[in-house]
């Protein structure tokens, strides 16, 4: 049997029993409203990075059965949503250090379809973003309310690439804030350089540099070392480095970053930082992180 994951149980005769009410209530908590988490369109890159970053388990699966839960088993479901207990057959494991059995179960709260009815889940191919349930290897818990997504080829490709990028040895660090900024006027009118140092979760150096020369468009670049490479440029959109910057940097340069500069230099640094923000573009998250049934929150 050719599987992309380690089988925890033999497939023959493998069936999950529907969790009892106590287990469902233990997993179910109130969830905030959210837009349709089961869009069949490609997911914004930033949302995918959020999901991949938060998920110890990522699986490509096909739903075998979906049992609607009511009464006490649906406690905490947001208005308009329906809660289902789902059993799904795993076809590929994108991430999961301990492997998965060939069939898993989980709880999902879904919004109605365009006709006002719960969407048809049976036989649907989905991407699952989940965490393990302790001592219950055949069950998982979605990391956020949109931890179950309709499968599409574009999302599948990007999720796999993001999973690789996050663990690469040269992965850009998590940006936590903005440090000091410096501005140096050049010898010619209209010539200058601004450098903005960023703070990171692991202390790795990251800085932005903005160069202005007479008669030329301003150029900006990001450096991931102490040395600024003159040939470096801005990151391509929908890459991990772009995400780290676009989704973490504040809209304006904090006043403390230019507190040591003369007023004219501080104003120039603010203008150069604004240029970087404009050229990065919006982070593009479609939604904020929302707890899943049984979860206590999404990615930070």
Please outline what is shown here:
This protein has 300 residues and is of the alpha+beta class. The strands form two sheets. Strands 1, 2, 3, 4, 5 and 6 form a six-stranded antiparallel beta sheet that branches. Strands 7-8-9-10 form a four-stranded antiparallel beta sheet, covered by helices on one side.
Features:
disordered C terminus; 5 helices; OB fold (Dihydrolipoamide Acetyltransferase, E2P); 6-stranded antiparallel β-sheet; elongated; 300 residues; alpha+beta; single chain
The largest pleated sheet is described as: 6 strands, antiparallel
Arithmetic mean of pLDDT: 85
Quote the distance from N terminus to C terminus: 39 Å
Rg measurement, Å = 24 Å
Write down the domain tally.
2
The number of E-state strands comes to: 10
The helix-strand sequence is HHEEEEEEHEEEEHH
CATH-defined topology of the largest domain: OB fold (Dihydrolipoamide Acetyltransferase, E2P)
List the uncertain runs.
1-18, 25-37, 294-300
SS element count, helices: 5
Query: What share of residues is helical?
Result: 10-25%
**Class by SSE composition:** alpha+beta
Report the portion of residues in β strands.
25-35%
CATH architecture of the largest domain: Beta Barrel
Q: Which overall shape is indicated by the principal axes computed on the Cα atoms?
A: elongated
The top-level CATH class of the largest domain is Mainly Beta
Description of the structure:
The protein is an alpha+beta fold. The protein has 2 domains: 21-167, OB fold (Dihydrolipoamide Acetyltransferase, E2P) (Beta Barrel), CATH 2.40.50.120; 175-280, no CATH class. Helix content is 19%, strand content 29%. Strands 1, 2, 3, 4, 5 and 6 form a 6-stranded antiparallel beta sheet that branches. A hairpin with a 5-residue loop joins strand 8 and strand 9 (206-212). Helix 2 (45-54) packs across helix 3 (153-167).
């Amino acid at each position: 049997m050719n599987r992309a994951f380690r089988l925890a149980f033999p497939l023959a005769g493998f069936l999950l029993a529907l969790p009892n009410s106590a287990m469902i209530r233990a997993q179910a908590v109130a969830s905030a409203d959210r837009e349709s988490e089961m869009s069949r369109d490609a997911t914004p890159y930033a949302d995918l990075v959020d999901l991949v970053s938060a998920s110890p388990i990522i699986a490509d699966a096909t739903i075998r059965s979906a049992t609607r839960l009511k009464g006490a088993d649906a406690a905490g479901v947001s208005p308009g949503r329906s809660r289902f207990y789902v059993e799904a057959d795993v076809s590929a494991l994108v991430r999961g250090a301990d492997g998965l059995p060939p069939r898993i179960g989980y709880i999902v709260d879904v919004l109605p379809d365009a006709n006002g009815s719960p969407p048809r889940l049976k036989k649907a191919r989905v991407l699952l973003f989940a965490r393990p349930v302790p001592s219950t290897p055949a069950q998982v818990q979605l990391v956020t309310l949109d931890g179950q997504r309709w499968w599409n080829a574009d999302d599948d490709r990007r999720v796999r690439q993001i999973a690789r990028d996050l663990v690469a040895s040269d992965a850009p660090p998590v940006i936590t804030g903005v440090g000091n900024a410096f501005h140096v006027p050049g010898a010619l009118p209209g010539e200058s350089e601004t450098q903005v140092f960023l703070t990171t979760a692991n202390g790795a150096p990251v800085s932005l540099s903005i160069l202005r020369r007479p008669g030329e468009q301003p150029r900006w670049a990001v450096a991931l070392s102490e040395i600024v490479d003159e040939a470096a440029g801005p990151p391509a959109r929908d890459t991990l480095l772009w995400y780290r910057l676009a989704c973490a940097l504040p809209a304006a340069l904090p006043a403390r970053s230019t507190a040591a500069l003369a007023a004219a230099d501080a104003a120039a640094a603010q203008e150069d930082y604004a240029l970087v923000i404009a050229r990065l573009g919006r982070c593009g998250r479609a939604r904020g992180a929302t707890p899943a049934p049984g979860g206590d929150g999404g990615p930070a």
